[in-house]
Amino acid sequence: MNKEEDKQNNVPKVIIDDKNDNNNSQQISLNEVDKNSEEKLLHHVAKSKAIFKSQQKDDPDLTFEEKLIIARNILQKSYCLFLSKFGHYMKKEHLTFFAKNKNEDYEIAYYFNKLQRYFNSSTRQTDVKNRRYQALKTLIKEGEYFSESEMMKRNPLLYKHLIGQYMTEEQKRLRDNIDTKNITLVNLLIENIERDNLKMKQKLQEEEEQSVLEENDTDEEQEIVYTSKNYGEKATYWAIIPTVENKVQCKNEIIKNPYCISKSQKQVLKQEFITTMYQNFLDGKDVDFDYSTVDENEAYDNIDLRTQDEEDKYFDSESPETIGSIEDTNEIETEDELDIYMKSLKVN
Q1: pLDDT single digits (tens) 63-79
Q2: In terms of pTM, does the model score above 0.90?
Q3: Alpha carbons 197 and 203: distance in angstroms, whole number
Q4: Residue 93 and residue 86: Cα distance in Å, rounded?
Q5: Domain map of the chain by residue range?
Q6: C-alpha pair distances (Å), 91 with each of 41, 134, 228
Q7: With the CA atoms of 234, 240, 242 and 244 taken in that order, what torsion angle do they form, in degrees rounded to the nearest 10?
Q8: Interior CA angle at 253 toward 249 and 257, to 5°?
């Protein structure tokens, strides 16, 4: 073997591993996907109305770049902290960025599952319904928000129809009485402003009610004319007349003597008013109430009830695969509890 052949034999062979090369390119591609997902997530959060840091009243607003830096630092520091702080400002598709980590970290899994529930419209509605019901019970127990005077302020016309018109002048005087001996000048001014607002609100409600009544009257007249033309003769609706006359007669009697109804009837009307005000709260109709303090507040979650529902549904199933959506169970249970409660109000 000559020197030339020996050199050729000793030349290191370069083996090209197609498999490893493909893995490396896939890894690079995967990292690029993660990076793009991260940037989209951070830009979306930076454009949101999330609170990035505590500021004083006169501090200038944070710029987009400043918000982006804060969000990026929090994400790099802790996924859990990022999810807890900005989770509700994300989109549902942003959760995929954290999906691979949820099986490795209990805290990430906790926030991930919680946000999955938040972004699911069905479970979200159930959670809101549960929280409002818990808040309702708390407010009833505390007493102030659902006191007669506060409910009257929120719906003065309904109060007038169901309660106010059946009160004696003495009862009204006691209701509206101000303890001038134990009230400050500022509170007295506030009380007067609130009374003016109450009168204004009632007037607006009466105007709206009158407008609706006039619309309904017009619709009824058009229906009568239409029916008359169909039969080709002048229609006389004698059956309607006694009903209208009876209504007018009843109204006149009430105006002459509004206190003539029995005590039990007054109690029924009062309970109707209270039940309506409870339902308005549950339906989100209290315009001056900040529902975000309830709808976004986990403190109102009935965790014991939800956990029991999920356990019952699991053990009642033939296998874990047959478990339906948890939200269905929650919704049924909530409706039952609410229905029973609201029905009990009407019965009492």
Answers
A1: 999 999 999 999 999 99
A2: no
A3: 10
A4: 14
A5: 34-51+60-119, 146-288
A6: 8, 28, 58
A7: -120
A8: 175
